[in-house]
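Minutes, project huddle
Topic: does the predicted pose make sense with nicotinamide-adenine-dinucleotide bound?
PN asked that the exact inputs be recorded in the minutes so nobody has to dig through chat later. Recorded below.
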Amino acid sequence: MANTYKLKTKNTCIITGVAGYIGLNLAEFFLKQDYKVYGIDNFCSGDRKGIKKLKIKFKNFIFFESDVEKFKKKIYGNNLIHLAAQSSVQRSSLNPIETIKMNILSLKPVLDIATRAKVRNFLFASSSAVYGDHGKKRINEQSKTNAKSIYAISKLANEIKLSLFSKKSKMKISILRFFNVYGGQKKKSKYSSVINLWTKRIIRNRKIILHDKGTVIRDFVHIDDLCNLFKKIIVSPKIYKCEIFNVSNGLAIKLSYFLKILLSSIEKNYEKKYSLSKIVNKKTPSDAIRFSIGDNKKIVNFFKYKSKITLKNGINQFIRDY
Ligand SMILES: NC(=O)c1ccc[n+]([C@@H]2O[C@H](COP(=O)([O-])OP(=O)(O)OC[C@H]3O[C@@H](n4cnc5c(N)ncnc54)[C@H](O)[C@@H]3O)[C@@H](O)[C@H]2O)c1
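Predicted holo structure (tokens), as shared on screen:
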């Protein structure tokens, strides 16, 4: 009987923020691998249609519409992935109190869910935003943090709380500092990522904004690579209490280059040319980061992470499925 229980919970993931962009993609990934997924989301910015589709497609998907703060159901699982958050830097400047409430005050109730569920692996979605600007240098996990936005501060506060919590807990805590995640199923949002925002406007022949003539640098991670990494972390036999990991590819991509690939992919798939005169140049806002390149040696060494999707393939796939 003890074994049955172990088997049941081992291949179970509890995902908070499951109706969000990363949550929907990740839930589908684990469900396809026969995991049982418990999803929690209050739909404050989540996608109801995405959840409906998952419920129809997978009988192993159990969804709870709830604030994480109010969630009291008895569920058991070995792994909890905490994604629920106010995830926009821009919005955190407009409404700092909301971000503090949503991102910082929700961590304790999520840790309570994890404790009640007897979770072994706790994975937290942090962000490369905690580093601020380090110029064109590759940032590693030891690099100084320099949060420039309320959003980044909220992520750092949670990292500190998790590090303290790990000292008195048996859970293995992985703090994942995501760089720019792209690709896969999209989610409609006012604060969309650059690929969603640009694609939508380019296809409709509308103006797009390019900051500092496209010299802004990002490190893009395809959602499929991210999902594979989650699995590697969950099944990893490595023993640790609390570790921080950059989730990046270590590639410096100028946004002008990203736009060039995107335009060529749209031209190929939609057979229409976008006039470059529609690109509006603006200065990068003060709470945004100009350069962000992550050193990923730690995830490569710990989990044998290897990116499988090149930027060109990732963008082409995104446009084909758009
Ligand atoms: N997408 C990226 O490139 C990126 C980069 C760095 C970090 N992150 C982090 O990864 C996580 C997931 O990102 P995303 O892009 O999927 O964000 P998202 O905004 O699409 O999803 C967040 C989800 O959390 C839900 N939610 C928020 N507060 C909740 C609460 N109190 N109770 C229940 N549900 C709640 C929302 O309804 C939404 O469905 C976030 O924590 C984000 O900060 C994302």
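Observations noted during the meeting:
- DSSP finds twelve helices and 15 strands in the chain.
- Residues 128 and 179 are 5 Å apart (CA to CA).
No decisions taken; revisit at the next huddle.
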